[in-house]
Amino acid sequence: MIALRSEMEIRSIREACQVAAEVLDRVCALVAPGVNTYDLDQAAKRFISELGAESACYNYKIGSRRFPAFTCLSVNEEVVHGIGSMRRVLRPGDIISVDVAVRYKGWIGDTARTVALGPVSADVQRLLDTTQEALRAGIAEARLGRRVGDIAHAVQTLVESRGMNVVREFVGHGVGRTMHEPPQVPNFGKPNTLEKLKVGMCIAIEPMVNLGTADIEYADDHWTAITRDRRPSAHFEHTVHITAQGPEILTVPPARQTAPAPLSSTAAATA
Question: What is the DSSP string of 222-243?
């Protein structure tokens, strides 16, 4: 059942999302050549604790497996769910997707961004730009009376128009007391399908875009998803609140928080 949140609940989710956004900003500021992903994950652990929250990723359980890291750090061909490692040292020209999910006062905040380490190839820059634009396109459809399928179709259409592919094994989701709530928000689909968007819904919209094939496989750790052709992948994510005035992006730090507004005003927050 899809939860429609009260104003008080929205305030709590907004606070959690602001914490997640602050952690994301801090971790991304540390991304540099020579840094390993284990140290980035440990820095995120410290930032989350300093802000009075806890990681929603750490010990996340699927079957008998538990996720061992505090964030998801996915480099180059890694799509999502990368685990920080001292052996994974960042180099000039790499890209890294930083995915932060926190629990703050019982509520979830979830956000992600892909960062480039210095100049990257034209194709990789096009991948980053396309994925970020796809997120904006999805958010633009997150309006009262539209449907989840409208978000999905907007993302897919933009990505495929650039000759790239969306990952189909992973989707966005509702956000609230737990990290993955209804509805699922895929990055592919048909307009005017799936659940109708209503005031009080909070959803994570998160395009995952591959420069090459959409196909993925898993690393030996059974968590990290990797593009099958080993070409790069990018991931951007915001948690969005459906309001009568339009989509409100919740996952921005307090200093940059804005009231619900048309996409032209809120899109800058996806940078």
Answer: SS-EEETT---EEE-BEEEEEE
Phi, psi of 153 (to 5 degrees): -65, -40
Which residues does 50 contact at the CB level (< 8 Å), separation at least 6?
Answer: none
Q: Check: CB of residue 234 under 8 Å from CB of residue 209.
A: yes
- Contact between 36 and 233 under an 8 Å Cβ cutoff? The reply is no
Dihedral in degrees, nearest 10, Cα atoms 51, 94, 239, 226: -110
User: Which structure tokens are listed for 181?
Assistant: 């709530």
Greater confidence (249 vs 259) lies with 249
Task: For the chain, give the percent of residues with pLDDT over 90.
Answer: 93
Q: Which amino acid is present at 73?
A: L
Over the stretch 215-252, which tens digit does the pLDDT of each residue have?
999 999 999 999 999 999 999 999 999 999 999 999 99
Separation CA 34–CA 32 (nearest Å): 6
Whether residue 69 contacts residue 224, with contact meaning beta carbons closer than 8 Å, is answered with: no
Token digits of residue 5: 């949140």
- pLDDT confidence of residue 263: 34
Whole-Å CA distances, 211 to 166, 215, 228: 9, 11, 11
- pTM greater than the 0.90 cutoff: yes
Give 68-73 contacts, CB < 8 A, sequence gap 24+: 69/41, 70/41, 70/42, 70/44, 70/45, 71/27, 71/40, 71/41, 71/44, 71/98, 71/99, 71/100, 71/101, 72/97, 72/98, 72/99, 72/112, 73/37, 73/40, 73/41, 73/97, 73/98, 73/99
